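User: Run a structure prediction on this.
Assistant: Running it now.
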Amino acid sequence: MPARLLLCLTLLLTSSLSLAADSRFQGLRGDPGLRSASALVLDREGRVIYSKDTDSVRPIASITKLMTAMVILDAGLDLEEKITVTREDRDLIRLTGSRLDYGATLTRREMLLLALMSSENRAAHALGRTYPGGLKAFVQAMNLKAEALGMRNSQFADPAGLHGDNLSTARDLALMVRAAEAYPLITEASTTQGVAVRPWSNRGPLNYANTNRLLKNAQWHIALSKTGYLDEAGRCLVMRATIQGEPVSIILLNSFGKLTPFGDSNRLRKWLLSSSGNLAQR
């Protein structure tokens, strides 16, 4: 076969395969009817499948903890080092409680696990407090990381997400989610359904569960997950999931109603599956 003909056939085949890969969730019709104020769904290449008010700057609550985890892991700190919760880790902003009483001691790895999986605020604060240079240096590192990721409309104020000045947009959070997926410990921790830890040698274990109930749903294949909630942020949820064999990023911000982000996620999934099926038939 002449080289030029072989080259043409190769390019045609490559183009066809690329088109097939690109087209599954592209050009969809209709609307999923989401109730979240901001929403963004991207395909594996970062192309927009669905968008709704993606550039409004909003409080992001505990979605912040994904950035906290990345900064800790970037620093190369000893994950087996023991960290003890102190009075400095109590929540003076929202006055929320915690089962990690003062004196609770866990490894840095376990603190990361609880912060990501169960959104444990004292665990996240302890991670920032024990960062080289302390909490101020940690928050500065969070903002430098955001800048490096191109998150131009974002800022971070504390490691737990309790402060209302942890702000971002759906578009920026898609960048953060994509970056976080490159950390195996983050994907593993954020999708772990439950864990038991022993913060005290003379007491029994504490059992924690994941805040994302979709992980228990066999229809969902989730590679990364984080929920968040504050009064001013509403309910928030970010995920990397595989739907019909296609990896997608899902960002849902400012949903009011405890179950709304999960309802919106199911509405999105149903819309993607039904619309892509209709598209294939046209």
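Helices lie at 3-23, 64-74, 108-117, 121-129, 134-148, 170-180, 184-190, 260-281.
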